[in-house]
Design goal:
This protein has 661 residues and is of the alpha/beta class. Helices cover 31% and strands 21% of the residues. The strands form 8 sheets. It has an 8-stranded mixed beta sheet, sandwiched between helices. The chain has a 7-stranded mixed beta sheet with strand order 5-4-17-16-18-19-20, sandwiched between helices. The chain binds adenosine-5'-triphosphate and magnesium ion.
Length: 661
């Protein structure tokens, strides 16, 4: 069999769960067997975590694949499950959200207050003519109203489409048009990097191009001047004056809950559609299982923006359905200082922290002494999501943040999967730095070759999902054909091979000797060097394991002798000197370091020392743009890029750098 994806690195470090945590864990090892024994019964049991107005007749209808229906015939209200039922159970005084504004202003919102706000917002939406099935665009900073707006939509059965508050007029207008939204909920602005950052002007321009929009609801956050049209209504003059009484009606389990566009790492974002009952079941279960949430004592903090799926599933729907107390932070991690995160962990006694590798690597670059100055003893579980986490960054996180006490859960999932799919369980799994380990109970993931055959342990290939799961996407909004083509046409029935429908996620992965899963980045990024398929992740992790390196991105550039050659872009750690000869020496040292770690086949042809890497707004490295630079082409789609000046700097450096041996 020809090699699908090379397996070059090996990892021998392993960390069993702390004994006390394991003994008291919400989910124990038996869950895997239970789910494997009867997967649908297992998910039906998890659905019982929720309060249903009408019980389902059938757990899964997979008669028209790949269009799944979960909990067929069941009815529930999502907002009722996330808010009302906690108040009814006598937990109204429990804090739902400890909100911290970037300037340091704070709000403490209990479940009873959240119920009042969501009910008022639901009444206002109804008054503005929004009803079940209508679409609402939400373009807000990280303020409590973002969660309130989402829950109010869910409460009345309107489908929300949250657009990240940093996106341009064009991005917002195309998303409004794609969903045919009636209403936009926005704010005058939000605080970022120490100053107010306006949102309303972007909305004004986008709305001018959007005939479907009837009203714009505006939260006053910064108090800055705003232009006003007759479509605009202030939130404080409508929602905050509305009746706090609102009775939630149940909706069908398959009622559309939200549309969310993928973050655009690989190209044009896709409008992913999620529905009600299956989605809430899986995000509620996984939030409880993966973070071992003890709702009475834990303080949970997910640092994602609400505009990404992580914010939807693990700030709003998962934690609130479980009655958690959480921290929500408006601003950037370096305002007013680079210690803001650790100051917040200490202040709110955060016990569960969920963040992204990009932030962990940034903290590494800033230096160990920053977190060292804080009492982080409240932490008990750490999570990571968004990209493969390099083993060295994982070890740094464990040591400097978790102080060698806290299990790390590296959670693999996508906008499309809705909830976590592959992750350690903190009370069960002996973790390996850099591995997402195993599929969660009830999830069937596999690594296959190009014939859809499972690869043996030690082999690499394509990551696929073999069975439908409750929080799976139902389609791409308005485009069933693109849904079929994008996810279901590579392997299995959709590719004309057999009857099994196999979902292909777009990511490469390998199984180590023990069968643990290692994510290897996107298969589109895999480099073909002298006949070997080499993953970007393994070479990047080898670079990051050098003490002078904070971050790295590698791409395969066309090469006359080897087919493709590895070109690496490296950000040195803060204290490393890179001027003149020292830089040249470091360059040579890094190339040899990779060669020693992974073998000569993986030695980069060229290394560029850079100050920044191109990232999406959600912080993920956009390798396709670096490939354009490495092959000296003009750049592809840059609309989801965080900072376009970065690309000019890197291209300029590339032109002047000398070619290596
Ligand atoms: P687009 O699909 O538009 O290119 P995107 O894939 O970046 O955007 P998301 O749905 O936000 O949009 O990201 C999901 C992807 O993020 C996964 O397919 C995977 O590549 C990566 N990812 C997320 N979590 C992990 C993880 N724990 N380990 C490795 N990769 C991860
Ligand atoms: Mg994707």
């Amino acid at each position: 069999m020809s090699e699908t994806l090379a397996n070059l690195s090996s990892e021998s470090r392993q960390f069993p769960p702390p004994e006390a945590l394991a003994a008291a864990a919400n989910v124990k090892a038996e869950a895997y067997e239970e789910a494997a024994g009867d997967r649908l019964a297992f998910w039906a049991k998890q659905a019982d975590r929720l309060t249903w107005a009408k019980k389902w007749d059938q757990v899964l209808d997979w008669s028209n694949p790949p269009f799944a229906k979960w909990f067929v015939g069941g009815e529930l209200n999502i907002a009722y499950n996330c808010v009302d039922r906690h108040v009814e159970a006598g937990r109204g005084d429990k804090v739902a959200i400890h909100w911290e504004g970037e300037p340091g202003d704070t709000r403490t919102i209990t479940y009873a207050e959240l119920l009042k706000l969501v009910s008022q917002a639901a009444n206002t939406l109804t008054d503005l003519g929004v009803g079940a099935g209508d679409r609402v665009a939400i373009y807000l900073p990280m303020i409590p109203e973002a969660a309130v707006a989402m829950l109010a939509c869910a409460r009345i059965g309107a489908t929300h489409s949250v657009v990240f508050g940093g996106f341009s007029v064009e991005a917002l207008a195309t998303r409004i048009a794609d969903a045919d939204a009636k209403l936009v909920i926005t704010a005058d602005g939000g605080y970022r990097r120490g100053k107010p950052s306006a949102l309303k002007p972007t909305v004004d321009e986008a709305v001018a191009k959007s005939p479907s929009i009837e009203n714009v609801l505006v939260v006053r956050r910064t108090g800055q001047e705003v232009a006003w049209t007759d479509k605009d209504k202030w939130w404080h003059e409508t929602v905050e004056q509305a009746s706090p009484e609102h009775k939630a009606q149940p909706f069908d389990a398959e009622h559309p809950l939200f549309i969310l566009y993928t973050s655009g790492t690989t190209g044009k974002p896709k409008g992913i559609l999620h529905t009600t009952g299956g989605y809430l079941t899986q995000v509620s279960y996984t939030h409880d299982a993966v973070f071992d949430l003890k709702a009475d004592t834990d303080v949970y903090w997910c640092t994602a923006d609400i505009g990404w799926v992580t914010g939807h599933s693990y700030i709003v729907y998962g934690p609130l359905s479980n009655g958690a107390t959480q921290v929500m932070y408006e601003g950037t991690p370096d305002t007013p200082g680079r210690d803001r995160f650790w100051q917040l962990v200490d202040k709110y006694k955060v016990s569960i922290l969920y963040t992204a590798p990009t932030l962990i690597r940034t903290m590494m670059k800033w230096g160990d002494d920053i977190p060292a100055g804080y009492d982080l003893s409240s932490l008990r579980i750490l999570g990571s999501v968004g990209e493969p986490i390099n083993p060295e960054a994982w070890m740094w996180y464990r040591k400097n943040i978790g102080r060698d006490r806290c299990p790390i859960v590296d959670t693999w999932w996508q906008t499309e999967t809705g909830g976590v799919m592959i992750s350690p369980l903190p009370g069960v799994t002996a973790t390996k730095p850099g591995s997402a380990m195993t599929p969660l109970p009830g999830i069937t993931a596999d690594v296959v070759d190009d014939q859809a055959q499972s690869v043996p342990n030690g082999g690499g290939g394509f990551l696929v999902l073999r069975d439908p799961w409750p929080s799976m996407l139902r389609t791409i909004w308005g485009d069933d054909k693109r849904f079929l083509d994008t996810y279901w046409s590579r392997f299995g029935a959709g590719a004309g091979q057999g009857d099994e429908w196999i979902y292909f996620a777009g990511d490469g992965a390998k199984k180590d000797e023990d069968g643990a899963l290692w994510l290897l980045g996107r298969v589109d990024d895999v480099m073909l060097v002298s006949g070997h398929n080499i993953s970007t992740t393994e070479v990047e992790s080898a670079l990051v394991s050098h003490p002078s390196v904070a971050e790295a991105a590698v791409v395969g550039a066309t090469d006359p002798t080897t087919g493709q050659a590895i070109v690496a872009f490296v950000i040195p750690r803060g204290n490393v000197d890179i001027e003149g000869d020292v830089g040249d020496q470091l360059n040579a040292e890094l190339r040899n370091h990779v060669s020693k770690t992974l073998g000569p086949i993986a030695k980069p042809r060229q290394i560029m020392l850079v100050a920044e890497l191109p990232k999406t707004r959600s912080g993920k490295i956009m390798r396709r743009l670096l490939k354009d630079v490495a092959e000296r082409r003009s750049l592809g789609d840059v609309t989801t890029l965080q900072d376009s000046a970065v690309m000019d700097l890197i291209s300029a450096g590339m032109k002047t750098s000398k070619s290596e041996d």
